TrEMBL record:
Coiled coil: none annotated. GO terms for biological process: DNA transposition. This is Transposase IS200-like domain-containing protein. Residues 367-386 are annotated as: Disordered. InterPro entries: Transposase_17_sf. It comes from Neorhodopirellula pilleata. GO terms for molecular function: DNA binding; transposase activity.
Length: 386
């Protein structure tokens, strides 16, 4: 069965949950310790994390969960056309121009000016297309992958591909699939024997949330959403020495807004607010993410407890009961509690080749809506759900 088209899996016009996987070319360890040369490229994981953080501040896309491994990355993204619809034309223009200004100065993207913003706002047809792209998962992944490849190739003094090809996407269609997939993503380093538990899984969303609970802060990578006055930009280029400009841009890339934020502030909140209607956009006004909407009917404490419990069930065949309070939560989502460990640890067996993730009845319903007979994984995954 051929891979489905992106337009069949998700649309910028509707809110969708998508699990994205992007692999390095030939699955080489280009973001870890290369087993052949012994060169340590682990610092590139921070490149990727900061780029994700920066894009979360401008795109109408929520980053729910992520894990950056040595040769691939996982993300669970949710596009928010309802949030983008609340932004003014000027906001849309500066957000887009921060990522795609259309010109370069040496190897760095140029700073958008007030004149650039006004020009884009006047072009209504172009602006409508830009507004749509800011809600598109494919454009988010493009804006993430291309600069990382450019930086790595420049560092290695080589050309060619850094990423294997287009990213793999799985549409998540219900709460059960979302919880299981989020746990699978957060536990990727544990499954790979890189860490013994979630508390040691650096470069994962669970680690960021846990450290933020302790009050850890980081320099914000969010874009500065204020355009530069046109006259000031011209004067700088004419009068400032190239070396000084280079140093200034380098310093600004480390912390564009000069702010420090909690380590997880750029991620979508985990817990949904019980008193907020599902139709409310919950637009974020702090400039580090698109919205303040959570994605699970689960508190952080319960999520962390279940994550740590699942991480300990690494030995196949060893039976241990899920804590009763958490077992009730899983049962309410339609998950077979006795199969929870198997579902998370053997995710690839059930949904590794599927374009859709969720309970069998949800997958069947979505297949009918998209003109398909079924999705791969629909039958094998049935054993994990009540």
């Amino acid at each position: 069965m051929p891979r489905p088209q992106r337009s069949e899996q998700f649309s910028p016009e509707e809110i969708c949950y998508v699990h994205c996987i992007q692999r390095c070319v030939r699955r080489a360890w280009l973001a870890g310790v290369d087993p052949v040369s012994g060169v340590d490229y682990s610092f590139r994981k921070e490149w990727i994390r900061r780029r994700m953080e920066a894009l979360a501040s401008v795109f109408a896309i929520d980053v729910l969960s992520y894990a950056i491994m040595s040769n691939h990355i996982h993300q669970i993204l949710r596009n928010r056309p309802d949030v983008c619809a609340q932004w003014s034309d000027e906001e849309v223009a500066i957000r887009w121009l921060r990522v795609f200004p259309g010109r370069r100065m040496e190897e760095h993207l140029a700073e958008p000016t007030e004149n650039d913003v006004k020009t884009l706002v006047r072009d209504k047809k172009r602006l409508a297309e830009v507004r749509r792209r800011l809600c598109d998962v494919s454009w988010f992944m493009r804006a993430l992958s291309e600069p990382i490849a450019r930086m790595a190739n420049f560092q290695d003094q080589c050309t060619g591909r850094f990423w294997e090809g287009r990213f793999k996407a799985q549409r998540i269609i219900d709460d059960a699939g979302l919880l299981a997939c989020s746990m699978y993503v957060d536990l990727n380093p544990v499954r790979a024997a890189i860490a013994g538990g979630p508390e040691g899984c650096r470069f994962t969303s669970a680690y960021d949330r846990a450290e933020a609970q302790k009050g850890e802060q980081v320099d914000s990578a969010a874009f500065d959403l204020k355009p530069i006055p046109t006259e000031e930009a011209g004067r700088k280029i004419r009068e400032t020495p190239v070396d000084d400009l280079r140093k200034e841009r380098k310093a600004k890339r480390k912390n564009p807004t000069g702010r420090r934020i909690l380590r997880d502030a750029w991620l979508s909140p985990l817990t949904m607010k019980p008193n907020v209607l599902s139709g409310e956009a919950e637009v974020h006004s702090g400039g580090v993410r698109s919205s303040d909407r959570g994605f699970l009917n689960l508190s952080w404490e319960d999520y962390w407890e279940l994550l740590c419990w699942t991480a300990k069930q690494s030995v196949q065949g060893v039976k241990a009961e899920v804590p009763s309070r958490l077992a009730k939560r899983l049962a309410a989502l339609g998950i077979d509690v006795s199969m929870w460990r198997d579902l998370v640890w053997n995710w690839q067996r059930y949904f590794g080749k599927s374009a859709c993730v969720g309970r069998p009845e949800s997958m069947k319903q979505h297949a009918e809506q998209t003109g398909r007979h079924h999705y791969r994984g629909q039958g094998s995954g049935a054993a994990c759900f009540a």
